[in-house]
Amino acid sequence: MLTFYFAKDSSALASHLLLEEVGADYTAHEVPITQGAHHEASYLAINPKARVPALQTPNGVITENPAILTYVAATHPEAHMLPDTPFERAEADALNAYLCATMHVAFAHNLRGARWADSAEAQEAMKKKVASNLHDCAALIETHYLKGPWAMGDRYTLCDAYLFLAPRWLMKAGVDVAQFPKLHAHHTAMLARPATLAVMAVHGL
Amino acid sequence: MLTFYFAKDSSALASHLLLEEVGADYTAHEVPITQGAHHEASYLAINPKARVPALQTPNGVITENPAILTYVAATHPEAHMLPDTPFERAEADALNAYLCATMHVAFAHNLRGARWADSAEAQEAMKKKVASNLHDCAALIETHYLKGPWAMGDRYTLCDAYLFLAPRWLMKAGVDVAQFPKLHAHHTAMLARPATLAVMAVHGL
């Protein structure tokens, strides 16, 4: 049995989608971060990072989307969510790492600038660069890292659940997703999956 | 045969260390980023992200430290660099993701602030927060994510090569590593490994 800790409409959506796709035996527990619940002692005991997502497993807690995605995929082999070869696996890992460390970070400078600078002026300056940075990330993915129709080609794998966030970040930053046809088609295909719709409903989307 | 693209004293050090640890059959090719070599067409054909590291394999190019580390570990099973269980593997993945997406990003705001804001004032404001952010990252790792003596416990695994960067980021930001005894001991243990010393020499360190 797994317990998944998420905040609505956060990046936890990625791991949540994969849990639902593989048919995991899990319960989803909301951490209302807008009310500061991620800083309460009860949650810090689960995830000292004060972030979501976190996944409570029988062995302990896993944090970070790339790690949770890989764990969920590895422990549900019947769902065939991991690529087959070490190279293809590395391609999926690389996309997850890019989403985590570059594109999500670029998006986070919109509302989370206080992580990296205290002054209000600096935080405003960061916001001004978010749309162009996200555009550049999307263009890179579109051109080089989205094989189509799914990220790794013909079959949905663990990184598709994460890639679902990219068009959402673009939309929130006012960047037109339609200028990236493969990414746009990926988003449309994701929205046709029952697991996606089920998880979005839980997130109030 | 593998070709590894690196810049001296960059985060590519992490993947470079693991290649050397496992005794991989590779050649190391320097990309002098201080001279802008990462933006030249010949390198963009290898890594469109204009970053290091990149690993040319017989199947194609892999980018991103977490992906390269996992690939190198997976393709050299005799070196036993991957943890044994899915949960322990996830713990290692989570540490790699944290180093990649949080701690390295926190460090990058020191010299790479132009990625996230155009104004010189904003970039200066970012620099002011680097030391405290890196201190917080190190404290989190020290308390929760470094089992000792190696990251995952008794045995060196793929994430130790990456964790080697953490004390280096601290030192560069003027944070005293000695206040984190486990991290300090980890760094000392790394410096006793022949592979570490061999790679540092290539990086001019």
TrEMBL record, chains A, B:
Domain GST N-terminal: 1-80
Domain GST C-terminal: 85-205
Family classification: Belongs to the GST superfamily.
UniProt-recorded name of the protein: Glutathione S-transferase
Organismal lineage: Bacteria, Pseudomonadati, Pseudomonadota, Alphaproteobacteria, Rhodobacterales
Pfam family, one: GST_C
